[in-house]
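Lest this sound abstract, we let one protein speak, letters for residues, whole numbers for local backbone shapes, and leave readers to judge:
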Amino acid sequence: MSDAYDRRDFLKLGATVGAGLLLGQAALAKGATPAGAAQPRIEAPKCDPVRIGYVGVGGQGTSHVKNLLQIEGAQIKAVCDIVEEHAKRAQDLVEQAGQPRPEAYTKGKTDFQRLCERDDLDLVYTATPWEWHVPVCVAAMKAGKHAATEVPAAVTIDECWELVETSEKTRKHCVMMENCNYGRPELLVLNMVRKGMLGEILHLEGGYLHDLRALKLGSTGEGPWRVQHSIRRDGNLYPTHGLGPLSNCINVNHGDRFDFLVSVSSKSRGLNLLAAKQFGADSPRAKMTYALGDVNTSLIRTANGVSIIVIHDCDTPRPYSRINLVQGTGGIFMGYPDRIYMEGTSPNDAWEPLDKYQEQYEHPLWKTEGEQAKGAGHGGMDYLEDYRLIQALRTGAYPDQDVYDAAAISAVSELSERSVANRSRSEDFPDFTRGAWKTSPPIFITDLG
């Protein structure tokens, strides 16, 4: 499946998503949670090599294909995309890497279902437009394959539950591939947090602050489908990049959990103003009503009393940032630029560069794999997330993120939409673990031994 996306199909799916949102709202208003206790942790047998079917080999999908071809034990057996040229490009890359030419599935938007039914795959990995993440993952797990998806894993609460329940029923992993979990400063700070250097964590701030106006108003790549979300939805639509690494610092779903959320959006101006400048004040894109507020701020409180601010800002002129603030009883870290203050260690009332602590607290993953990650997408983060997933499946180890993590972080989208629509009313998070978060051990690695 490519980045190209038909507006008619989006509107059909949009109606389904909207109906699902209303049903989910009614269910949660009654305190309803799908019945049953959380299943025991999935213990999947080793699969070495890991045989992969890749769905969606546009820009980001192709980047992952290139990474996987560099990782020992990863074999790409099939690729799927609605654009034949994209599938052929992926086939060529695999063949050039010395692997047999993978079969291509290009017969429409649901041809991934045929791919999932193959008997020579262990993992189905998807980098499609957001609405297709859950259908691909569910089809993969029901066909007996592990599933991995680009972010967000799901758009609605109902979709989050579908991923959780399908993973539990099939005993297959479903992993949301959040690359920012593997950023060098993020992992360095996580290592320091796990070693107690910042004390007890009290407050976190993160987000996705990235000027995407030109992309959304463009006619290629992600633009045509991504702008449809801005037209139809108002909330924190892309929370995972900022929230993923922060969640690891407080062991969400593994000792703590998201409890409730409130959210507020600003007015919408950015897309209209840029469209008027580029296409004229009377152009359809300039006159379009965009539901998405230019800046959304969501506030989360966890069961253990940690406060978290998550910001979504993609329609204003600004430098890129994920904020990345970690505040504890013993100190504070702030990103963009990276700086740290530790009580009793740093100069009084003065920031220090994070680099000062890199040699002492460098994360083991960057020590062992950092050189190989150089040149890969997003500063090497993409390679490391792919490497860790393949390593886990090859050895039978538990992956760095599980389906409960995927559901909890993705749930921010619908909960924030509901809060915004109801004058910032508080919205409760479902407990996707059904209580297991209290005893589940932390799973995101700080040691590799």
The first helix runs from residue 7 to 29. Residues 181-364+403-438 form a domain with the Dihydrodipicolinate Reductase; domain 2 fold (CATH 3.30.360.10). Residues 2-32 have pLDDT under 50 and may be disordered.
